[in-house]
Structure formats: C-alpha cells, structure tokens
Amino acid sequence: MVAARTFFARMNEGRSGWMTEAQLIKGCKEFFTSNGYEQLEENKIFDQGERIFNSLLVGSKTGEEKETIAAYFRPKMDRHDTGLLGLLESMLYDLLDNYENTNLMLATDSLSYMAIVKMEELSVALENLMDEGLFLLFMNERSGYALFDDFQKLTMPIPVPD
C-alpha cells in the first residue's frame, strides 16, 4: 500500500506535458483490452435517452459478466471544468436509465489528480457523480493507469503490485 499522493507523484514523475486526447484514447484501448473488455467500439452514438451523444471509445465485456463502459476523454481537468460536470451528469443518467449494464467513465491525464482532489467545486461534483456510478480513469503516457469507482478512494492508500 502506498499513499495516494505518493502513487500519483510516481505516476507523474519526469512528466513535463499533458497527454493529448489521441494519447488518452490509445491508453484507454490498452486499459480496456488488458482488463477483459474484448469488444471495443469507436465513435459509438448513444441516442436512446433525452440527450444524443457520442463516445469516442466504448469497451464491453461479453460472456457471463456483461458490462459496458462509455469513455469520455478530458486530457486536462482544472477549476474551469465545472460546466463539463453538468454534461457528464446528463450523459451518466441517460446511460444508467436507458442502457443495461452501461456506465460512463471520465478518462483524464494523471496530472489532473491534484486539481480534482484540491478544488472543492470539482471534487464535490465528481464525488456526487461517482456516487451515482461514474468511473474515473487516470492515465500517463507510460501505459500507467488508475481506475476509481469511489471518490473516497482517491485519498486512501492504494495497493501496488510488487
């Protein structure tokens, strides 16, 4: 176990710039395939709810444990992203209400960690969304990632494999 801040400091060690959306998509594909999401769809349109929206990448598990995750990519999160959270909220509820076994995942650069846990407006809004089912995926350009399904876990010690 390692403290969350230490974990993210290691994840961000030696980094000087933010990942691009294309890098996040590539990393998310790797995340999906390494975690059993065999079916990947690009540019999937969700149109069964109140809002029609497009997810650049959707990963699905087939077989016994059916689960689908629609990814929304935001390379850099900062204090000006509170408007984005309203959009994410409506997307999340549309997915939960209209698609079986489907969740929304916000994929962002691991450099966004400090902004998310330090800025109260962002952290409170994300905590509420995560309570409803939003996943949060942090990535770096070295194929490192950390997935969270509960906001409280962002500040708790993180188990790290040897």
CATH architecture: 3-Layer(aba) Sandwich
Contiguous helical run count? 5
Radius of gyration (CA) equals 15 Å
Helical percent range? 25-40%
Give the CATH topology.
Trna Endonuclease, Chain: A, domain 1
Succession of helices and strands: HHEEEHEHHEE
Report how far the terminal alpha carbons are from each other: 10 Å
Molecular structure report:
It is built from five helices and six strands; from the N terminus they run ααβββαβααββ. The protein is α/β, with parallel strands linked by helices and about 160 residues long. The chain has a single domain (about 5-155), classed as Trna Endonuclease, Chain: A, domain 1 (3-Layer(aba) Sandwich). Strand 5 and strand 6 (about 145-150) form a beta hairpin.
Describe how the helices and strands are arranged:
Blueprint: H1 4-12, H2 21-34, E1 39-46, E2 53-61, E3 67-73, H3 82-98, E4 102-109, H4 113-118, H5 120-132, E5 135-139, E6 145-148
Parallel strand pairs: 3-4, 4-5
Antiparallel strand pairs: 1-2, 2-3, 5-6
Features:
single chain; 162 residues; Trna Endonuclease, Chain: A, domain 1; 6 strands; globular
Q: Outline of this structure?
A:
Helices cover 36% and strands 25% of the residues. By secondary structure, it is an alpha/beta fold. A 6-stranded mixed sheet has the order 1-2-3-4-5-6, sandwiched between helices.
